Structures are given as structure tokens and as C-alpha cells.
Amino acid sequence: MRSLSTIFWLATKELRSFLRDWVLLLLMIYSFSLAIIAQAQSNAQELNNASLGVVDNDRSELSRRIAGAFLPPYFKRAEPVEERDVDHLMNTGRYTFVLDIPSHFERDVLSGRRPQMQVAVDATAMVQAGIGSGYAQQIISNEVADFVSHTAQTPPSPANLAVRIAFNPNVSTAWFTSVMGIVNNVTMLGIILVGAAVVREREHGTMDHLLVMPVSPFEIAMAKILGNALVITVAVGLSLTLVVRQLLAIPIAGSVPLFMCGVVLYLFFATSVGVFLATIARTMPQLGLLFILVSVPLQLLSGGNTPIESMPPWLGAIMQASPSTHFVSFAQAILYRGAGFEVVWLKFVEVACMGAVFLGLGLLRYRSVAAKGG
Amino acid sequence: MTATGAVARIAGVRHRYGKLLALDTISLDLPAGCMVGLIGPDGVGKSTLLGLIAGAKASQRGGLEVLGGDMTDRRHRRAVCPRIAYMPQGLGKNLYPDLSVRENIDFFGRLFGHGRAERRQRVRDLLDSTGLAPFADRPARKLSGGMRQKLGLCCSLVHDPDLLILDEPTTGVDPLSRRQFWELIDRIRARRPGMSVIVATAYMEEAERFDWLVAMNAGAVLAAGTPATLKSTTGTSTIEEAFIALLPDEVRRGHRSLRIPPRTRYDHETVIVARDLTRRFDDFTAVDHVSFDIERGEIFGFVGSNGCGKTTTMKMLTGLLPASEGTASLFGKPIATDGMQSRMRVGYMSQSFSLYTELTVRQNLELHSRLFHLPRLKAAARIADLIERFGLSAHVDQLASDVPLGIRQRLSLAVAVVHEPDLLILDEPTSGVDPLARDAFWEILIDLSRNAGVTIFVSTHFMNEAARCDRLSLMDAGRVLATGTPQSLVEARHAVSLEEAFVSYLSEAGGHAERRDWTVVSARDPARKNRGGSAYFSLRRLLAYTIRESLELIRDPIRLAFALGGTAFLMLIFGFGITTDVNSFTFAALDRDGSFESRAYLGELRGSPYFVEQPALRDAAEVQDRLKSGAVAATIEIPPGFGRDLRRGRPTEVGVWIDGAMPFRAETIRGYIAGAHSQFLADRSIRGHGSGGLAASAADVSVRFRYNQDFDSVYAMVPGLFALQLALIPAILMALAVVREKELGSIVNLYVTPVTRLEFLLGKQIPYVVVAMLNAAIMFLMAIFLFKVPLKGSFPTLLAGTLTYVVTTTAYGLVISAFTRTQIAALFGTAIMTVLPATMFAGMLTPVSSLTGFGAVLGRFFPMTYYLPISVGTFTKGLGLTDLYGHLLALVAFVPVLILLGLVLMRSQEK
After folding, report:
1. Does A21 touch chain B (CB under 8 A)?
2. Which domains does chain A have, with CATH numbers?
3. Is the pLDDT of residue B618 over 70?
4. Would you tell me which CATH number, out of the four given (3.30.70.60, 3.40.50.2300, 3.40.50.300, 3.20.20.60), belongs to the domain B270-345+421-509?
5. pLDDT score at A98
6. Where residue B800 falls among pLDDT bands split at 50, 70, 90?
7. Tell me: the pLDDT tens digits for B672-719?
């Protein structure tokens, strides 16, 4: 009871300090609003505006129709290029795709000689090259088929492939990046706000002050965790409802309260890591350096940016244990796929356990480090 | 310059920091050729005035002439700057703690353009004359306060200045070192009588020895003249009394000479017992076998210089630090680090007035009463009482950061006694507070001790405060030299004052190994030919910064480890972890047909390395469940009669569901499945099962993946990471290196020595360019041997591109450092301004040619946009200069632009 009251009052103090720092407040508002919108509009994960050149040696009706079939937003308008310039243009990255239509292409198609045409792809543009080459093949095949079916009688393809994309029918990047942006913010802010709060308290000498009062390190740490986690939770809730739902008009399939429960648990982990890092770092710059080495991999490898399945097994195994991976995975499950508690509860438990481990480690180091601070 | 004229003429100078008025229209002439003292408490504008005279701060209003010229005139400032030496406030603030004594002096010598032989000569002279010679190779941070001040003086005197400006040079230094310091100054002046010295000090007793005094309060000059004039006009016998007499009436009101009533004896009840307390930090002994007993109601003083172990001893008594050896008990119980009981009886006030400056005065009091669990009603009464008693009522709703220092100090004490403790431990509670506020503070202490029976353990470096204690211990270098009543200590040494007694104890202890007879600085007034070298550019000054920065970097293991290992670590993690290859993703099939054809169809998928099959689906309802839990990424449903329809040429449809939560993955999976589907149909038609030729086979569309036939993302990702890492880490290190100087104060050397901004920036940049190139070399080796990404193109092109690139990225850090002030802001500023453009708009994932709008603009002005084609081009595309010279030229163009921008944004004077 006494402990609860101490934690409550210290947490109130944390909140008051946070609200006084308006630069921090502005940064946080920015990262949960404008930054989310910018990421949603980035199109980084789609085929968008890909540059395309055409070497048209045929100059026929068909070759023009093929070049004309590449349309925005997926492709830019095809630009004619000369055969001899292709290497240089692709070397310098001017075009990601170059169609090479051989001479007599149309004639050969119509006479059933199955001529060959080539799509050269700059394979160093990984995302566009991968998705775009499939698109390009499809577009050309359709165009050729269409052309042929108008001029000759061919039966339609016997087996169709009906592909439906679940949870995100238009495969829109914005759906994905906006929520992942929020998830990344939670990792980043959870660690840095609490870590910086602890280090600041030590640099300002107030930590000593607290430690000579009848206040235990556990109470200090819990107060920081609660105060800052509350701020972030509120920010996440607002960002999700106002920015993602209202402004960006992205539908959310699942239960927002359930997701918020997950956020709270994950914040327990992130803030505990913050406490732990603050016991290792002696100064603010050191905390900053540590923060980058820890949080950037946590973020980038959590499966929120690139698929975990594609990592080498050892790294995948490590990341499978990381709460950030669980967080991304249950965020996707709840928000996009509408998963309920029965699907995600195990992940909740794992996140909470990892949080407890880091809090424990942080507390073990707490007093010894606080003492060295002077 | 004449000895009789004025060294500085100040006419109507006004200076403000935001809302705070630091100097309020001051007009004053400071006489040349003598020692001028500025006296007054902290925060009255002394440092501001000195900074203005030294040219470290840009003057805002009013006229200021120093050494016969206008300091607002840039040319004059450049011209006189080598003749002025400025030692800022704070022990060795302009020194570099990681550099040795010799290296520090050497650095300043280089800044003033001295050649190697001249430097060696001067360094030896200075070290000999100050007695620092035996410690020439010791890092500055390991020096005691007194030694650090001497080193600061050496660095100031290295160029034989005509005007020496010292801002509180002796604050926090023990009395013996202080005395030696002034003797040293006297000798130097005897040797160079033309030199003018301007000193600020908070020790009034020091002011007695100066030739001319300026008494300042609240940004205004109270009086100026010789010490004798000041004393005679006020009719007082000491400078301290004279100063108090000069203060305006409303400030002085209520002040009276402090009287200390005799102590009530509580049957010699002992509150603190310490026996052989010892504390070691690594190889350094901070407190060495300290023993004492403190009785109830006693005011017990700890006196000594900064860093002599006072704070460490107090921390051991509060349980903050465990003792390495020895025992201590409070109230008869041994100290435990988690003893909640004893904490309820102790109030502690640490050196820095540890308050929550972002809370108001009342909120601070309330928070502490809560933490000590005072009942609500009692707390309210107690807080009201404290506000009344400590005179805080005018400030209750102000933020603690906004109230004057004296008020903050009283609040700090109020907070420490909110729970009515029996013991108060106060660590230098009065440093930086003016004499009046100090007296008022002591009145409260005496009241607590005499009337409430509170035991007070206080540390100080003011001798007149020490004299007020009931008993005191003199400390030096971790040891107690003597303990007793002030009277008995003075008598024991046959001294006239406590200060003299302390000096006598210090001399006897001989702990100051550097102590020896001063020889006179052999300042051969040299022919003033190459003072500072060229005014505009000097390679020697530039290299001074390069050498210094490199030494510091080498000696900061954490930064160095991060600089070299950080990239390798992130490269390792990202090189393996970030991949755009989608493989081994999971699918489950619902085969409602079970025919030869349906098995052949699924066989296409099963044979592919991209697919991993999960247990088959039982029914359509399971499709959504499995997708929802993320157990499978795709499901494939083959309709009943699939084989039959296919054989008869009747249309049939395979249904596929793909998890769209990750758009990129969904798109890729869609492509793979479509490919497998066409393959299946093509196989059938080749084997002659097909009824009629397929339309798709009217032409063959082959995709040729250029540069990377297997389309393995590592060949694009590793060169991309190469570019990303060289953008991020060198920029961060560079920005931190500059802002660090701002935050720690050594930036003042840029303001007051002949070094120019260009020399400063380029000089600091060189080591980080080297570090970045080392990083590049490490990553290059990792790329080739670990990730097996060969360099197919031209190595010289990559090398030239990389070198130019790291020059631009470090310059990018310089630009950011020019407008950030704290290290943490520099760190996050750089991270935010680098990571987003680098990952999103420089071509890492989306080619630059596909960008539109704001992102495209951002990308165009980011160096990585031009380096990425060089890195990817030479590694994976096998290119050379013929294809890449355009990008290389663009990168080269960044260099002057960024450096110029950094120069323009960087200030040459403090505001």
C-alpha cells in the first residue's frame, strides 16, 4: 500500500516533467502524426512509378500496344531508347526495366513462330525488380494474347487462377507502413523516454536524492515505467483512431482495445529495456549510442520491415525470441486479420515475461550504478 | 599600450539571455597594467562581462574597447586575439580531460602557431615554473583541482599575453593551492609588468590582494576603486563587510551578524560513528581510512578542496555507496544500503541542489512529503510551516528552475527537512550563493541544531563557514588531516586564522607532491613575429585540432569501439537480416478434387524452394482461421472436378488466398503462384495434354535479371548497407564531436584563440574521415569474405567515391552540429535527418527514378543518392569511372556546399 502510494506520486512527477518538456512533446506528436502519414504515402513496398525503356526494333502495331500497356501508377510511361544506349542507361540507374522487342515480332507472333522478347531488369532494385518482373510478364502476355485473339481464333485458357488477397485487398502499402510506423515508434520511444529519464535523473543528481529517501529502486523504476508508458499508450490510441482510421481512412479489422492491451504489455518490455540500458550507460551520449545498437536491430528485424522467414535460421531463431517480433506479429494479427484473444494470448505472455527479465536485470544493476554516478 | 591607460573601456554595455538581463547598462574603465578584481556572488554578470572583454561573447549593446580597439570590429578582434588569454570559469573547462598535461599545452602552442622547437622550449619552461613537470604525462582529468588550475594557467600563458582574464580561477581549490596560485600570478606579473590581469572571484578575502576592485550585484556595478577606498568609503574593515554594506538597502534588510548560541549537550549521545572508512574506485582511493564521531545536535564540518573525498564520505554515510573497508553506523546501527528505517530519520542535500526543476516549489515540497508518507493533514500543515519559515511564500507557484539560486538552496533544505529528520547531511550547500544568502542559510541551520536538536553534517570549502561549525575535520586527498573545534585547530598550529591553520596542516601532510619552490616563468618577451601565424588560414592550427581530436578518440574506448565495431555489428545483423528475398513461406492446400491433375498442380508448388507446405486444410472454414493466426501465408483451393474439367477443356478455377498484412510479401507470393500456375499449364501443353495452344505461348517473354542473375538480394543489399552505414555513423560521430565541445565548454577556445572556424571544422573532420574510411575497409572485407559479394567493377572508382562520400557525410554531421546544442539533440537530430532519407529516398528500396514529390526533393539533396549507384555499380554491376563519373562529380559538388553551410551556421562568438 505504501509502495503503491510512492509509485503513484513518483509517476505523477514523471508525467508532470514530461508535459513540461514541450520540445519532446512536439517531437512525439510529430512522430505519431506527420511521420506516420509520410510513411503511409511512401509506397516503398509496392511497384510504383517504375521507370521503363523500350527498344522497339519492330515498330509494329503489336509492339506499340505492348509499350502502351504499361500504365501508371505501376509504371511510368515507356520511353523509347536505342539499343546501343541500353547498357549505359541501366548502369546509371536511369531505367529499372527495359523491354527489348525484336524485329518482325508481330509477324512472328501471328505466324505462330513463338518469337522471343526480353525484359531486362535491374536486379539491384530489389523490391521493384521482384514484383515488377512478374507484372511485366503478365502485361506482355495479356497484350499478346489479346492481340492474337482479335486476329485469330484461339480458345480461352482452360484453368483460371483466382487470387484474392486477404485483409488488404488492394495490397496497399499505406495499410502496412502506417501501423508498422506506430509499432516502431513504440519500441523507440519506450526505450528512449525511460532510459533518458533515468540518466537525466542521475546527471542532475536527483537520483541520489531519491535513493536516500525511503524509496526502493523497484518503486523508482516502476514509476518511470508507468508514467512514460501511459503517455505512449495515449499517443498510440490517438494515432490509431485519429490518424490511421480517420485521416488515412484505413480500415481496422480487429479489436482496438485488445491491441491496446498488447501495446501496454509491450511497453512494459520496452521501458524495462530502457531502465536496463540506463544502468549500463553512464552518460546521455553513451545511452544514445547503446540505444541505436539495440533499438535499430529490434525494429528492422522484427518482421515489420522484411519477412522473418527469409532470414538465416540462426538469426530468425534469435528474432523469434524477441518481443518486438511478437509485437509485430500480434499487431498484424489483431489489426489486419481481426484475430481475437484466443489467437494472441501466448504472445502476450511471452512479451510480459521478457519484460520482467529485463526489469529484473535493470534492478540488479541499479543501485551499484547509481552509486558510481557521483 | 600604456601602463597608465585603460585596458578595457566599457560604455553602456547591456547583455541579456532571453528574458534574463545579465548586464544592465554598465560603463566602466578598467585600468591597464594592474590586477583588477570583479567581486560579487554567482549570477551577477561577472562571467558575462569577462566573456565580452575576452571576445568569447558577441556584444549586444554598448561600446567595448579592449587593448585600444573596438571589440565589435571583427578585424580588431582577430588582431588582438593572440594578445589576450582567457581562462573560463569551472575547473579546467577549456582543457581537454583525456589529454595529458604536456599535450594540452602543446595543443595551445599549436593554436598560436608555435613551431616544434619553440613549443618544446615553452612547455618545459611553463611546466618547470608551475611545478607540473613531474606530472607532464598525466591526463588532465586525473589532476587535482589546484593542479588543473595551474595547467589552465600554463595554457593561457603559452603565448605571452598582454591581457590575462581569469574567471573564478580558485573556486573549489584548497587554500594552500589557492595561495600558491596567487603567488604564481604575482611572480609572472613581476616578470612582465606590462601585463594586465582581470580576475573574477567569489572569495572576498582573496580580493584584498588585488590592485583595483569592481563590486557587482544584479548586473550592475555597485562601486569600483582600490580595496582601501572601498573599505574606507563604507567604513568597514574587510572586503566582505564592505560588499555587504554596498548592497542596496532592501537586499540588506534583515541581515545581521550571525551569532551562534552554545550547544546543548545531549549526554554525548553519538549519532554518527565512522571507523576507518575507505572507498576505492578501481586503482584510485577516494577516501582513505577516515574516522570520526558526531554527537547529537552538533554542527560538524568537513572542509577541503574539490575532489578530496568529502562527497564520497557523505555518500557512504547515506548508504548510497558501499564502503570498501571500515565501518560506519548511524543512530547506533550499521549502515545498510536498503535500510528504510534509518532513511526516515535522515535528510540529505546533495551538491547540486537536487530538486526537480520542472516542478514548482510547492509541487516539490508535496512530492517529498508524499514520498515520506506524511499523513495528508500533517503534510499540509508542515508544508505551510516550511514555506513560512524558509521565506518561500513569494515563490510557491514558480518553477524551481526559475527561482534565484539562494531561494533554490533554501527550498532544497526545506525539502530535506520535510519529514523532520534527526540528522541532516549537507554536501556543499552554499557554493555559488552570495554572502547574504549564505548567512540566512546558516541562521536556519543554527536554529535547527540549537532549538530542534538536529545533528548537522556539512561540507564546505569556505573557511568562514568552517569557522561556524562546532567541530570540523580538515580533509585532503582522501585523508583527514585533523579534527577538532575551530579554535583548537588554530591554536594547535599557532596560526592567526583557520585558513592559515589549514595551510599549515596541508604543508605538513605534503600530499601535494607537485609542491616545490616556484621558479619564475622565464618569459623571454620574444620578438612578436609569428604570433598565431596567418590570420586566415594556418595548417598548423588545423592540425592542432586534428591531432587533439585523434588523441581524444583513441582514449575514449567507448566511442572508439562504437565507431569501429558499431558498423561491423550493424552490418552483420542487417546483412543477414534485411532481405527482400521471399522464400520458404508457408501455404496450405485444400484439394477437393484429389485427381492426378490436382496433385500435379500442387506438385508444382511443392517442388519449389519458395514454398513450405503446412498440413492440408480440412474445409473452407479453416482457410480464414489459418490465415488469421498467421500460421500460413497463402491457401490454395482446388475445386471438385478440376482434373475432369481440365481434360475436357472446360473452364475451371483455382482459388488462392494470400495474407495481405505485408504488402510486399503478398505481391511476391502472388507472383510466385502465378508463375507456378503458368508453368503447370505450359507443362501440360508440352506434354500434349492441353486442348489447344495456350495464348501465352504465342510469344516467349523472358526476364533477364541483369547484374544479379540469381536475383539474390544480398548483392544489392550489402552494397546498399555499405552506403547506409557510411551515411549514418560518421555523421553522428562528427556531430557529437562538435556539440560535445559546446556542451563541455572547450568550444571557448574557438572563440578566443586565433583558430578560425574553417580550421576548427576541417581539423576536427579529418580524424572522422579516417575513422569512416576504416569502417569502409572493415565493411568491404565483410562484404567480400563474409557475404561473398565480390567486387566486380573498378576498385579505384569505389575508393574515390567512398572517400568523397565520407567527406560529405561527415560534413553533413558538421552542418547538423552547427544548430544543435546538446549531445542528445545532436544524436537524435542526426539520426532523424539521416535515417529517413537514407532508407526511403536515396534509392535503397525504391529507385530514385521512381520517386515523386517531397521524397524526390529530399533524395536529390542527400549525398547517398549519388553514392549508392557508385557502391552498387562497382560491387554488383561491374562498372567503372566511365559510367559513374556523373555521380562522382555530384558528390564532389556536395563538399564545398556542405562545408560552407557549416561555416555560415557556426558561430565565431558566443551569443
Report:
1. yes
2. 2-43+172-372 (no CATH), 52-151 (3.40.1710.10)
3. yes
4. 3.40.50.300
5. 92
6. very high
7. 888 888 888 877 776 665 444 444 457 778 888 888 777 777 888 889
Judged by CB atoms closer than 8 Å, whether chains meet at A171 and B699 is answered as no
Asked if the C-beta of A1 comes within 8 angstroms of chain B's C-beta atoms, the answer is no
DSSP string, B243-292: HHHHS-HHHHTT------PPPPP-TT-EEEEEEEEEEEETTEEEEEEEEE
Q: Do A208 and A370 contact (CB within 8 A), yes or no?
A: yes
B864-872 and B714-744 helices, crossing angle to 10°: 140
Contact at 8 Å (CB) between B842 and B859?
Answer: yes
Q: From CA A345, how far away is CA A342, in angstroms rounded?
A: 6
Instruction: Find the range with the poorest average confidence among B127-141, B353-367, B516-530.
Output: B516-530
Which cell numbers hold the place of B447? 536554529
The pLDDT confidence band at residue A374, using thresholds 50, 70 and 90, is very low
DSSP state of B614: P
Provide the chain B residues 533-592 that lie in CB contact (below 8 A) with chain A: 558-559, 562, 566, 569-570, 573-574, 576-586
Mean pLDDT of B288-304: 88
Is B264 within 8 Å of chain A by CB? no
Q: Give the integer Cα–Cα distance in Å for B719 and B219.
A: 59
Beta carbons of A10 and A215 less than 8 angstroms apart:
yes
Q: What angle do CA B802, B805, B810 make, to 5 degrees?
A: 125
Domain map (residue ranges) of chain B: 6-251, 270-345+421-509, 539-575+712-905, 585-691
Contacts of A204 in chain B (CB under 8 A): 352, 354, 357
Half-sphere exposure of A284 (CA within 13 A, CB side): 20
Q: Which fold has domain B585-691?
A: abc type-2 transporter like fold (3.40.1710)
Distance CA B779, CA A40 (A): 32
The SS3 call for residue A51 is: coil
Assigned CATH for B6-251: 3.40.50.300
How far apart (Å, rounded) are the C-alpha atoms in residues B214 and B40? Answer: 9
Quote the ipTM score.
0.79
Does B312 score more than 90 pLDDT?
no
Q: Do domains B6-251 and B270-345+421-509 have the same CATH topology?
A: yes
CB contact B50 to A (< 8 Å):
no
